[in-house]
Design goal:
Elements: E1 2-5, H1 10-22, E2 27-31, E3 51-55, H2 61-71, E4 75-78, H3 85-90, H4 93-115, H5 119-124, E5 126-132, H6 157-176, E6 180-185, E7 187-189, H7 198-207, E8 212-215, E9 221-226, H8 227-240, E10 246-249, E11 254-256, H9 257-271, E12 284-287, H10 302-308, H11 316-329, H12 331-337, H13 340-350
Helix pairs in contact: 1-8, 2-4, 4-6, 7-9, 9-11
Bound molecules: nicotinamide-adenine-dinucleotide and 2'deoxy-thymidine-5'-diphospho-alpha-D-glucose.
Nicotinamide-adenine-dinucleotide binds near residues 9, 79 and 185.
Amino acid sequence: MIFVTGGAGFIGSNFILNWLDKHKEPVVNIDKLTYAGNLENLKSVECNPNYIFAKVDLLDQTALAELVGKYKPRAILNFAAESHVDRSIHGPGDFIQTNIVGTFNLLEVTRAYWGTLPEAEKKSFRFLHVSTDEVYGSLEMNDPAFSETTPYAPNSPYSASKAASDHLVRAYHHTYGLPTVTTNCSNNYGPYQFPEKLIPIVIHNALKGKDLPIYGDGSNIRDWLYVVDHCEAIELALDKGRLGETYNVGGWNEKKNIEVVDTICGTLDKLRPRSDGKSYLTQKVFVKDRPGHDKRYAIDATKIEKELGWKPKENFETGLAKTIKWYLDNETWVSNVVSGNYREWLDKNYEGRK
Ligand code: NAD
Ligand code: DAU
């Protein structure tokens, strides 16, 4: 039995679907169901006897302790977080609560439970913490990519809260011997990503005939990784990762944002041409930049490749083609998540930025 926190979100739900496809081992999904948590993502497994859902907030230590006591997991994988940089700029409070205090609660509950296990189970137990490359800050164009020894230099409330959670995980290994592994991953894309992040918002807005908002001049660079490749890296880190270590996970796919938007437009022009014959490129709009916008992220994923034998299977072209096709085939999923709250978010983040 494993626990996954944040399993109703983008990466967590991809992880659970992938896991149940390959394994017979049960998984408990612990999720508060914020705006980003969506049980629709897990519809195909809701009747699977190896899937259990618990609506629990990481801030509720008592409920977490009851769950570990009841199910006695052999591993806890922590995906749950507030994850959107722009939301952390508008309101950092939830990020501090979930990402820092929530991780602390989970570590405390895990430490107490782990301390009661018999020696063999204690040894094989794992706490896997899912983190981000944003903790390393921003690169200049000619800087080498982030490695596991790059000093932490987070720049947004989101990345600062994730950095704090990484430090707590590190400290629980160092001080209490808790068997932890941390992964720091670059930008993910793929099915079930909430349309607040760059790739899904551009696909969604394009199809709705709306502006495609590009922050600043579109020259910021991200290193894109297909979500299923990330899930497989996490599984390997869980199985074979050395205790107390961190592993960087990235796609070797650095792209300027403008290139990403242009590629999406080009693909949609072919797969779902606009009725007026014009290109989706005509919907691009440059908007006022994100405050403190990190210039470039790039991951050096040599360590996980050498130690654990992981390499991404998808390149940006194949992964993006799959992603766009998924959004075209799942327009109902998208229309179900763009509710009143979502429209309020668009007003808050994009109004007056043109
Ligand atoms: P997401 O926002 O799509 O999902 C987060 C999930 O956590 C949601 O289901 C939400 O309901 C749940 N959650 C939030 N607060 C909670 C709380 N207090 N208690 C319990 N559940 C709570 O996020 P994602 O994109 O799937 O990211 C998952 C993890 O991966 C995060 O830790 C994020 O920092 C990390 N990460 C994401 C990316 C990316 O590109 N998306 C890249 C690297 C690392
Ligand atoms: O690097 C890993 C991180 O990637 C994760 O830790 C975060 O959880 C995840 O949200 C993501 O952060 P980014 O800020 O890089 O992702 P986002 O999709 O929000 O933005 C990607 C780039 O596109 C960034 O340079 C900002 C830009 N952008 C974003 C949006 C939403 C735009 O130009 N327009 C937009 O409307």
